[in-house]
Sequence to fold (395 residues):
Amino acid sequence: MDEKRVLLIVGGGIAAYKALELVRLLRKAGVAVRPILTKAGAQFVTPLSLSALAEDKVYAQLFSLTDEAEMGHIELSRSADLVVVAPATADLMAKAANGLASDLASTTLLATDKPVLMAPAMNVRMWEHAATRRNLAQLQADGVRFVGPDEGAMACGEYGPGRMAEPAAIFQAILALLETARPLEGKRAIVTAGPTAEPIDPVRMITNRSSGKQGYAIAGALAALGADVVLVSGPTALAAPAGVNRVNVETAQEMLSACEAALPAEIAVCVAAVADWRPETVGGSKLKKGAAGPPPIALVENPDILATLSKAARRPRLVIGFAAETDDVEANAKAKLRKKGCDWIVANDVSVAGTMGGDLNAVAIVTAKGVERWERAPKAEVARRLAQRIAEALP
Ligand code: CTP
Fold:
């Protein structure tokens, strides 16, 4: 990504703080970032933090002699390979949809001849308002790309769609737009992600704390390199990465069926935290408390999706599993490689606090040839490196 350039417009919303993390991810991947901070944006992040992380000057004024002398707004609007608006507020979307040029950000959006990616962030009522719906449809018709918003709890106390996509998801959408080399074009990849949920009765289930972040990041990174990605996902709160076909499943058995239905594929990456066991019988009605005390729940083993894909008649050329270990990480990963019959195991040390559900991951890639340790990095960066490595392994 060296030499790629992004012009980042930071609008005024509580999500603006996440733009700082986005800048950090982009810089780490070698992308140059030139920031524009709106007047409202400066209420949430300071020009100094943005400038320090971007390692560039922050542009803020349309009628500033110094800014204009250094780089006129027309030149600024064309100085990058991609224009990103994060957070894209209702106001910025409305201005862009209607072609207003009332400040530096809106003027830049009107003057640019480069692709534009917006990451909307606003209150759920504002997002669902007919005016924002119209503006969104207009911007999409004008060729603007979107990432998010996600659904969830909002800073204002309401719940619904309108939260800005996570920095990792925006980062991936950016990489997908900047990436011109598409070495995985024409190759299909199956990625499993998230937890599975195994029902006990119509209201109860056995599940786990997997967030799905690493699997989603890998699906997005493979798509960014041109792969045709089927993301078979258990229940998560994440939006599907750009360009990925998501198949939603609940149980391990459904996950296996969806993976088999997606064959043939060149690549399979099993990141999902599949429940090892499921209740043997699932009650048709809710189990009630009674004099007999707690009901016994008999468990049976779930199918092993990674092992099944590794032995399949239409086995993908490259099958990759994950191993979450707390002790003897590499020795256990090597044993798992043999047991499952896959080609690589990505071993992560979950004894490091904050790995599960967090944004950082320290992994080792274990193959028949040996072990390669990668430094602790954001999950999006681990995904990008893994996708590159996959592309190199599959000429
Ligand atoms: N996996 C799978 N289907 C299962 C169980 C696991 O596809 N039913 C995959 C996971 O997606 C991951 C790898 O297998 O790629 C993890 O292997 P597993 O043996 O489940 O590892 P752990 O959960 O770490 O198990 P153990 O307690 O045996 O170490």
User: Anything to note?
Assistant: The first helix runs from residue 16 to 28. DSSP finds 14 helices and 21 strands in the chain.
